[in-house]
Amino acid sequence: VVSTQSTxxxxxxxxxxxxxxxxxxxxxxxxxxxxxxxxKSPWQxxxxxxxxxxxxxxxxxxACAKNAKCTGVTKExxxxxxxxxxxxxxxxxxxxxFIKYGxxxxxxxxxxxxxxxxxxxxxxxxxxxxxxxxxxxxxxxANDKCTGVILEGKK
Length: 155
What we know:
Elements: E1 26-32, E2 35-41, E3 43-48, H1 57-66, E4 72-77, E5 80-91, E6 96-107, E7 110-114, H2 133-142
Antiparallel strand pairs: 1-2, 2-6, 3-5, 4-5, 4-6, 6-7
């Protein structure tokens, strides 16, 4: 039944309240200042780290890379960028966020993004334990099914 009435409670029924148009999203991954950044549009960080306004994306990403409390950058409009904190985002018309994802490292002709305190879902490809990070990365590089390495204990 299509309705123009407001919603109220009624057992055994489900209401689908019409909202706005579906948000068209864009996601791009890039590297800058030694980090991997995931750009998502049209979003903004729910919380700004501070009130400092940057006039270029490059300057904002550089400042965020140097700040451990910064989790990314919001582009509010051309020439207006702010550092974000936290992991909550909200829709932002004509805005974009650049999420600081992890530190970028090069090894064996591949780029590797690493982030402390995380693990990977899925199973282990083998029960082999490697004695060095270099050996583990080399083994992963050689196996097309390998998507990453989990380092347990000391670096």
